[in-house]
Task: structure prediction
Amino acid sequence: MAWAIIALLAIRFWLSVHEVPLTVHPSNSSAETVDAPKGGSADRRQIPASRKPAHHGEQEDPRQATDSPEDIYARRGDELKPEVFDPNTASFEVMAAAGLPRRVVHTILNYREKGGKFYKKEDLLKIYVMTDSIYARVEQWVDIPPPPKSPARERPRVLIDINAAGPEEWTWLPGIGKGYAGRICRFRDALHGFVSIDQVGETFGLPDTVFQRIRPMITLDTRAEGIAINAWTAEELAGHPYIRPKEARILTNYRMQHGPYRQPEDVRAAMAIPDTHRLQLLVPYWRFGEEER
Result:
């Protein structure tokens, strides 16, 4: 044992005198050692494999080969200058160039594919991934054209005949919608025709302001059908807006007792009512032919 210790001490002394370096190689096989230049230090430098220089003619590509189409379009958008766009038609790269994140652009495209449409800038806020800050950043680049105007309905160039016009023609007049047009036509049918333009103003619910507005646009060119006083039954006479049920029975009873009516004075005598204004309204309606209906 003593001899072994003495031998080790002798070897150490000899190595120190001759300055023999001790080199320890790492166990990592991925590292490389590079010898120092001649005349320099005897130590070795280790270069990790991950930092190897590229071969001659090769360049590093920081982009991964698994980029999605959206990533590619987004990079193209980064290379473009922002421009005004319509989110209903703009491409992925144009919207990305304006500052929209790719997830927002992707959502907009999906919305469009499903039939969605933007009618004004603020509609972009309906996209669930759109935030107020993103919208504020791109608002200046958004331009949505207004929808094309539907062609205006052709207005009549001539006056409307109040006894011949249908409901659709009445709606051509200002202030007359389908509701008023229907009421006017039903009132006219109950009267069996208008005998005066002023009667249009008697239509139930029709404001006088509306009637005065359309008055210059209506005319009376077609004769009213009138009342066949010698042929109508009591029920038919009572259906006229100007004749009451009791008066209708009186008219038919008088006709049965005295024969057919021949002139307005006969009707006036039969009705025997003091309402001269209403009687005057009825005069233009009387048709005295026995066969008229």
In short: The chain is about 40% helix and 5% strand. The mean pLDDT is 78. The longest strand covers residues 32-34. The beta strands are 32-34, 45-47, 160-161, 218-219, 227-228, 286-287.
